[in-house]
Write a structure and sequence with these properties.
By secondary structure, this protein is an alpha+beta fold. The chain is built from 10 helices and 14 strands. The mean pLDDT is 95. This is Cupin.
């Protein structure tokens, strides 16, 4: 899949003091060597088994984790079945120690089963790992997660939080697209997804350009980043990203955080409500609601509520935790009618 543009690289960053211009970038950034001094990275450079042994030092071996399992023929592409009524994998919940044992057992297989432990909280399942392998993002209170698997191809999707993903073991390829490429990526169902987020239906390894004719336009806007051990990538909120784990054993550690108050709900909830209550209105009513959303949500200005006394504006005033709680309670009451 030819992609001409590479993600812009940044070198020489201090993992203990990442500049705000990196953490607030509106473009993806390849942070070359950001985690190169992590002991897990050094263990992985020694061998995959050394990395597995290192992880075993911290693993709560009895703690069950969610592992996606698929037959060799899917070649690591965790996806739908042909009818889009289910998936080409199943989920098992082995102890973390057993998952690591299985990864080691299949390291030398020519065609191993596909095994993938997705986003798993580091501090819960690998207590102590963070003490030796960490970036200083404490000011942003990020969620710190680990991803472990063999060769994988994760369909293009987007996440609401900002994201720094650090390759600790193996190599990964990220292909990223700006949010405005939604139409050209042919996104699948919103409410039946392989791992929580809607995904592109395009197989990046063999795109069907006849079926997905606009995908060529998406590729014209794509950027690619090849990451090795110790490299990291910053992915801004809502940028689409297709992720490939390229080696027989891959470990990624990532940080997610939002630059919004904790009381703000996910905008996906608003989208689902709009699909239920706005999309299928008569054309003239839908156009009226489009203007209402423009006025109150997408283009508010000083005149939007300027004619209302400040102490009477309530939800039209800047949102506060108290007003958000009241609004949420009112919405729940209406939805549960």
């Amino acid at each position: 899949m030819p992609v001409a543009t590479k993600v812009r690289e940044v070198h020489g960053l201090d993992p203990r003091a990442l500049p705000e211009e990196v953490l607030t970038s509106t473009e993806p950034l390849l942070l070359r060597g950001l985690a190169k001094d992590w002991p897990l990275v050094r263990a992985g450079l020694e061998s995959p088994r050394a990395a597995i042994d290192y992880l075993r030092r911290f693993a709560r071996r009895d703690a069950q984790v969610a592992v996606l399992v698929a037959p060799p023929q899917v070649e690591g592409r965790y996806f739908y079945n042909d009818a889009l009524s289910g998936f080409n994998f199943h989920t098992e919940r082995p102890p973390l120690g057993a998952m690591l044992d299985a990864m080691e057992r299949h390291l030398d297989d020519a065609r191993p089963p596909s095994l993938y432990m997705g986003s798993t909280t580091v501090d819960t399942y690998l207590p102590g790992l963070r003490d030796e392998n960490d970036l200083d993002l404490s000011a942003h209170d990020p969620l710190f997660s680990v991803w472990v698997g063999n060769r994988t191809r994760i369909a293009a999707h987007q996440d609401v939080p900002d994201n720094i993903a650090c390759v600790a073991v193996g190599h990964r390829r990220f292909t990223v697209f700006p949010p405005d490429q939604l139409r050209n990526l042919y996104i699948g169902p919103l409410d039946l997804t392989p791992a929580g987020q809607p995904v592109s239906l395009v197989d990046f390894a063999a795109p069907d350009h006849a079926r997905f004719s606009r995908f060529a336009e998406a590729l014209a806007h794509a950027q690619v980043a090849e990451l090795g051990p110790g490299d990291a990538i910053f992915i801004p909120s809502l940028w689409w990203h297709h992720v490939e784990g390229l080696d027989p054993f891959n470990v990624l550690l990532n940080y997610w955080w939002r630059r919004t108050p904790a009381y703000m709900d996910s905008p996906m909830n608003a989208l689902m409500l709009a699909l239920m209550s706005v999309r299928d209105l008569p054309d003239e009513q839908r156009a009226a609601w489009q203007e209402i959303f423009r006025h109150y949500v997408f283009e508010p200005d000083a005149d939007t509520a300027g004619h209302i006394p400040e102490d009477a504006r309530r939800t039209l005033a800047p949102m506060t935790p108290e007003v958000a709680r009241e609004l949420r309670a009112r919405l729940l009451q209406r939805l549960n009618r």
